[in-house]
Structure formats: structure tokens, C-alpha cells
Amino acid sequence: MSGKTNFEDKIKELEQIAQELENGELNLDESMKKFEEGMKISKECTKILDEAEKKITILIEDNGNLQEQEYDIQDEN
User: Fold this and answer.
1) Are the CB atoms for 10 and 45 separated by under 8 Å?
2) Stated pTM of the model
3) Which residue of 4, 10, 16, 27 is 20 to 30 Å from 51, comparing CA positions?
């Protein structure tokens, strides 16, 4: 695995922060820091998903041969 943290690891971090905030044991300053950290991780997750969406490909069968085409989100509209 590369040095980058993967999406699943970031989601686990986000879940941990949510649990810490929900348990009510943090003071206001700690809660604010955790919230800011959670927002940063959330933005990182969104970026990872956006990048993945750009890389999605669809396999299309064409005369018995599989062709790989770039997925275009505009095709959905």
C-alpha cells in the first residue's frame, strides 16, 4: 500500500471523531478541534470519491470484443 491513506482509513477516522463528539466528554475547545479535523477528512474523502469517479470505466461488449470506455457522468442526465 502506498503512503497515502486510503478512503476506508479516512472513513474510520471520521467515525472515530463522530463517536468522540457524540460521547460528550470533550470540552468545547477539544470538540471544535475534532469538528475541524472531521471536516478536513470529509473534504479529503470527497476529493478521493471525485477522483475515483473520473477514473470509472465501463466495459462495453462490441461484436464479442470488450472495449473499455471512459465513464461520462453527463451520460446519466
Assistant:
1) yes
2) 0.64
3) 16
Dist. CA 30–CA 61, nearest whole Å: 54
Note the pLDDT tens digit of each residue in 16-48: 999 999 998 999 999 999 999 999 999 999 999
Tell me the three-class secondary structure of the chain, residue by residue.
Answer: CCCCCCHHHHHHHHHHHHHHHHCCCCCHHHHHHHHHHHHHHHHHHHHHHHHHHHHCEEEEEECCEEEEEECCHHHHC
CA distances from 58 to 46, 47, 73 (A): 22, 21, 11
Beta-bridged to residue 57, according to DSSP, are: 70
Contact 45, 4 (CB under 8 A): no
C-alpha distances (whole Å) from 47 to each of 6, 17, 64, 68 are: 12, 19, 36, 24
